[in-house]
Amino acid sequence: MNINNFPSVSEYLRAVVEQEEADARKLEEACQLAPRRPRRINGPSVVFSMRLSREEFEALERRASAQKIKPSVLARAYVRAGVARRTDSVVVEAVDRLEAAVVELRAAVGGVVAAPG
């Protein structure tokens, strides 16, 4: 923009300010984060992603591979176990009682357990 192309200094300054405002709006729009995608809901479950360090992910992959399952399946099992331990003591207590009952049952039958079916 050249001041000589305007009839007065005030017209030039007005044009400069308007251009700066337009540039600032463009910059602000460019800096805004893209809106988050809504979570995908497939039936009764919800897709949820999380960030892990490289070391955490590699450990998860090794453990999942050792169990011949996908890392996502193992991560889901860990989350469910953690949630159950912290907030649902009824489930944890039921599992503890079940384990104790299995030990008693095995002791009662002399450690012999019939194959199912």
* Tally of distinct domains: 2
Helix content: 55-70%
**Which geometry do the CA atoms define?**
rod-shaped
Succession of helices and strands: HEEHHH
Biggest β-sheet description: 2 strands, antiparallel
- Adjacency order of strands in the biggest sheet: 1-2
- Give me the count of strands: 2
Contiguous low-pLDDT stretches (5 residues minimum) are none
Distance between the termini: 88 Å
Strand content: under 5%
| Secondary structure tally, helices | 4
| Helix vs. strand class | mainly alpha
Question: Averaging pLDDT over every residue, what do you get?
Answer: 78
SSE topology:
Layout (H helix, E strand, L loop, with lengths): L8 H23 L9 E2 L2 E2 L7 H13 L4 H17 L1 H20 L9
What does this protein look like?
This protein folds into 2 domains: 1-35; 50-108, no CATH class. It is mainly α and 117 residues long. It has 4 helices and 2 strands; from the N terminus they run αββααα. The protein has helices at 9-31, 54-66, 71-87, 89-108; strands spanning 41-42, 45-46. A hairpin with a 2-residue loop joins β1 and β2 (45-46). It has a two-stranded antiparallel ribbon with strand order 1-2. It is rod-shaped and about 105 Å long.
